[in-house]
């Protein structure tokens, strides 16, 4: 709360971010209900992974071009217009779902919605360092990113609650359409909140704007800028590995709740169980974010990133042996918590090292790299997981990936050696 009082413009950015992510949760719960938790659409690992790919693909397609907009035009205007477009897009999606459409047309509009979302979040992350001092970046990221994640969980819960409220009055697909129609109103509110931010308040600054447009070259330029900061690039790769593991674990949880822990003939029970597991993970995420600044203060950014990578490994190993609902929730809590602590710490590390002139391009590369790892996690889980979701191998593969990342990619001689180059 002291942070919000010290920086008067920060709450304006948070309102935009949190309203958008609250709405994201409701939108995603409606999509999950329509695609994965409908009685006539029983998912296997391949179908679940394809659904994740539809969500994640735009991040990799839009990411290379995000820097074109975010480093040249008012980020406030970009975020505001993107939210208006997203609201309009959801009106079309609601109509398609009301009609029961599951084809390529629906997929394209969903891809557009998530692609625009990537642009918004990258813009908010790139603009954050202009609102707070460098010494407060970790705390600001903890508030912004973690608050947003918690609001996604809350939005998902609200979506499921609304679905249960109106489920008796209409059919499942019509309920999902109503949820998405409501979400369109949420994105419209986020656009209105963005109007409160000053035109150049979150950048780019006038003297930093470049007129040269390079498309994919923007992302490559971000990569070349990061190459001179070896710790930042290693932190980004570690964040990708961690997020890829979370994706695989999420798909495993989805299949377990849908097809094993609950009767496959009762998809609503599976959806409630999955939402409960996500809510517990959300609590872990919140606590992990609170622990981040304390961990950094005690161990330093670089060592804390490494600790956060190692900490959940034991829980993953145990979950592979004891694949019950209690261990799923416990594992989700710790993987989510330490994963979020790693993410906010690395975000602050990257933000502190890159000048605002290049920050949009750098975060464009960051987004593409991390989401590429997430898609890889989805693909691997699709190949490994049975329809039941019960697997010894999947949690152990995640544990192995985390171990190799912590002790090879983030080893002291190559990663912690940079600790003196940043605060």
TrEMBL record:
Cited InterPro entries: MFS_trans_sf
Bilayer topology: Multi-pass membrane protein
Main location: membrane
Subcellular location as annotated: Cell membrane
CDD domains for this protein: MFS_MefA_like (cd06173)
Any GO CC annotation of this UniProt entry: plasma membrane
Keyword annotations of the record: Cell membrane, Membrane, Transmembrane, Transmembrane helix
Transmembrane segments: 45-66, 78-98, 104-131, 138-162, 174-194, 236-256, 276-297, 304-320, 326-342, 363-387, 393-410
Protein's name in the database: Unannotated protein
Species this chain originates from: freshwater metagenome
